[in-house]
Amino acid sequence: MWMPSRRQVLLSGIAAAALRPMGAKAQTEPVTILQLQRRTIEVNGKPASVFGIRQPDGTYGIATEVGKQFRVRVENQIEQPSLIHWHGLTPPWRQDGVPGISGPPIPGGGNADYNFPLSFGGTFWMHSHEGLQEQSLMLAPLIIHDGRGGSGEQEIVLMLNDFSFTPPEKIFEGLKKRGSMPNMAGGGGMRTAGLTRMREPAPAPDLNDVKYDAFLANERTLADPEVVGVEPGGKVLLRVINGSSMSNYHVDLGRLAGTLIAVDGLRTALVRGRRFPIAVGQRLDLRLAIPRTTAAYPLLAILEGERRQTGIVLAAGRAAIARVPELAEIASPPLTLALEWRLRAKKPIKARKPDRVYTLNLTGEMAGYVWSINDIVWNPEIPPLQIAEGERVQLNLVNRTPMSHPMHLHGHPFQVVEIDGARFSGALRDTVLVPPGRRVTVVFEASNPGLWAFHCHLLYHLEAGMLTTFK
Ligand SMILES: [Cu+2]
Q1: Using alpha carbons only, what angle is made at residue 138 by residues 136 and 139, rounded to the nearest 5 degrees?
Q2: 65 or 17: whose pLDDT is higher?
Q3: What does the mean pLDDT of the chain come to?
Q4: Could you give phi then psi for residue 34, rounded to 5 degrees?
Q5: Pairing of strands 428-429, 414-419
Q6: What span, in angstroms and rounded, lies between the C-alpha atoms of 454 and 38?
Q7: In angstroms, what is the span from residue 148 Cα to ligand 1's centroid?
Q8: pLDDT at 39 > cutoff 50
Q9: Closest C-alpha among 375, 382, 407 to residue 470
């Protein structure tokens, strides 16, 4: 992320801290304190200095309820500026948490206050949008309960992260030096599947630019995974959050059959299965039925295109917990749009002719790790794309690169309505994966005035300039 100039910071004043006018109800709700902290965790048996977002009592992130106000004070206790984005929520523009676009970062030792209504529930998350802090785990779950768990359903949050002992700035430098080297050899079985309507077959996609030291599930690896006790015969609502900076996974439920009930927090028609793809920034809400027998059930996330995996273990009764290997038996395939194509929004947005259509080509130059939108590398001088309030906006996302890009819109959920020219009433969500050579069309209602970021959620692509804004 770019740093705003001193002048911009002064001009925008304490915008991030600006409170919205409050109703009587809002004033009576208690403020939740979130502290941005530096802390040490253990990864592969070694200490790792990372960030964290905790309440004073140690709670990781926030769990709250639909209909309440999101009344939060962020206290920045680290020695550098930071700003937290509420991924998937629709706050007023100034509270969206993107430095230089929604407001200035919070200086070290400073605070910012947030107060806006929570009009829908689901599985969301929060993360720093400042620099590369997200890679160092400046992130946490943000759960808004709306009764979807049903009574007696046990809720389990599964946060996925990629981890490196190399500082993120060094990782980024290395990427720029090395460039991205697409695998053009086409080594068989790596072609994109599904609705390909391109004249030529896609080259093998370029996966996993960064070689990570570990993949974390709730901050632990499979060498010492989290074990969650569950009731034999019970029901579980599993909320999976891909908080990784650069890594897509296949969630593998093993012997448990799951029912997908929501993506990115928003309800879909039910999809049953044992394996579900999850791209960077996305979430999956999965309903699991635990068999009546005493047993242990690993819930895994297998890195796209590789054998490396992470996960947690559900223990039903007094089950013996066997060691789960950190390598799957076979490499997983690249993520495709096969699931996206099957998803149907439970409450689709009303069909209507778009008032405005933007075609956004996802572009880049592999040699220097340059990533862009319509060949424009983001900088603060780039004028925002214009939208009038109330318009129906259609975005045609066309990937002209050999890497897939999880594209995220701030401030508005969108509906996926077309893949490679084929119309359908797809999922409502906030982050959609556009694989190499593919074209994905989304629509949204411009109901939230302000200046909004739209970007690739791969952290180093974002840092390299794969961002634009809508006004
Ligand atoms: Cu990207």
Answers
A1: 125
A2: 65
A3: 90
A4: -120, 125
A5: antiparallel
A6: 29
A7: 32
A8: yes
A9: 382
Q: How many CB atoms lie within 10 A of CB 60?
A: 16
- Comparing 14-18, 156-160, 288-292, 403-407, the range with the smallest average pLDDT is 14-18
Residue type, 356: R
R_g of the chain computed on alpha carbons: 21
What would the pLDDT profile of 176-224 be if each residue is shown by its tens digit? 988 655 433 333 333 333 333 343 444 566 888 899 999 999 999 999 9
Rounded to two decimals, the pTM is 0.90
Domains of the chain: 6-146 (2.60.40.420), 210-335 (2.60.40.420), 356-470 (2.60.40.420)
- C-alpha span between 412 and 393 (Å, rounded): 11
DSSP codes, 349-410: PPP---SEEEEEEEEEETTTTEEEETTB---TTSPPBP--TT-EEEEEEEE-SSS-EEEEES
CA 237 to centroid of ligand 1, rounded, Å: 30
Q: How far is the CA of 301 from the centre of ligand 1 (A)?
A: 21
| C-alpha–C-alpha distance, residues 118 and 72, integer Å | 12
Are 249 and 301 in contact, with CB atoms under 8 Å apart?
A: yes
Question: From the CA of 467, how far away is ligand 1's center (Å)?
Answer: 9
Q: Which two tokens stand for residue 157?
A: 């949050």
Lowest mean pLDDT among 178-187, 223-232, 339-348, 418-427: 178-187
455 CA → ligand 1 middle, Å: 8
How far apart, in whole angstroms, are the C-alpha atoms of residue 357 and residue 397? 11
